[in-house]
Amino acid sequence: MTELAAPFEMTLPAVSKHLKVLERAELIERSRHAQWRPCRLAPAPLKEVADWVERYRVLWEERFDRLEGYLSELQADSERAAAPTDRSERQPGMGAGEDANGDDE
Q1: Which stretches of the chain are assigned E, i.e. beta strand?
Q2: Fewer Cβ within 10 Å of end Cβ, the chain: N or C?
Q3: Each residue's pLDDT expressed in tens, for the chain with a length of 105 residues
């Protein structure tokens, strides 16, 4: 266990506790060889989890793509609304020398 714990900043009891949790979840298998208790990953349960996550990954990618498209539309609409216009302050139908009250400038 010391060798397993070496790369991590964990106490030996903490590593032991983590290994017991993984063993109860059937994610690792432990055996005995004299004083050694080697552990190995159990691939079957991990494959089940990976398959389940993959199904939802596709679903969430599609949803995020739709959300991205919607947010892009909102941003484009907001930018168009905020863009300055080249229209003068004059109202349609006014002559070049009239202001908004119809008086000559």
Answers
A1: 28-30, 39-41
A2: C
A3: 677 778 888 888 898 898 899 999 888 888 887 877 788 888 888 898 899 999 999 899 999 999 999 999 999 999 999 887 666 555 555 555 555 555 555
